[in-house]
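As agreed, record passed on underneath.
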Amino acid sequence: MQLPKPNEAGAVASKGSSGTLYIFAALVLGVILGGFFPQDTHPVLYEAFRFCSRAFIALIKGLIVPLLLSTIIVGVAQTGDFRAVGRMGGKSLLYFEIVTTIALAIGLVVANVLRPGDGLPLDLKATVGELIPQHPPSGWDIAIHLFPSNLAKHAVEGDILPIVVFAVLFGIALVRVGPRGKPVMQFFEGVAETMFGYTALITKLTPIGVFGAMAYNVSHMAAGHALPSGETIRGWSAVFYLLGRYAKLVGSMYLALGILVLVVFVPVLLLTRTPVLGFFRAVREPVVTAFSTATSEAALPRLLENVVAFGVPRRVASFV
């Protein structure tokens, strides 16, 4: 992997540091304003907070498909070696399978040892039907879902895997066409560059999205919560009470994530001779964004930009 030059790495780190600072400031401000303006007494402000969060996430979701589609097509076509694409795909699937299995094992151990859900005010009976489908898909159903049938439908429903499969096959076909496919290649190169510019524009709004997400969630908490004794608490008392009840659950999750990072990600970085601190600085801002907005989709575009700036070839970052 080609790592960035020292001046480029410094620029990336400086940019990431300032972005993370703005996001953290927006997070804190959202918590404060959400606590002082509960949903029940300030419904207009609550809806404004919610609008900021939902609008930002909608913008992010709108750029994921064209960004991935164009960059994967260009990456596969530029590679030109179908065997290299196959090897990269095989290694990626093997890596994801191994890491996912380890992550599941760590999660199960932490959950069964700490039992973080005990005593939480959750009505599992009301949601068990939604969590467990009555007719779970078979292996054949899952496999057939990978193949694209309607790109517009997949884009609307957020089905990324069929779009990735289409982009890979389209890139391979573009290589096979030869010189006649050059205009198409130039078109998608232009789309990819434009989408990176569009992504940079949208990600400047990340602090606003983070502020809205935190403010409307805390505002909802501050609206009131009924205690087991029948008493209802409101305001900061309700916020701190709910945070305390969920602290063990959230803490257990981050404990499991920390173990995963130390057991898997750090050794992988060391084995591949990738600067550990530099890598974590590169992904710091996307991680904060995902945490604040409670969706990984909000972090994907910035993550793609940052790892490319860090030194990962764009075709590899887009494909993987």
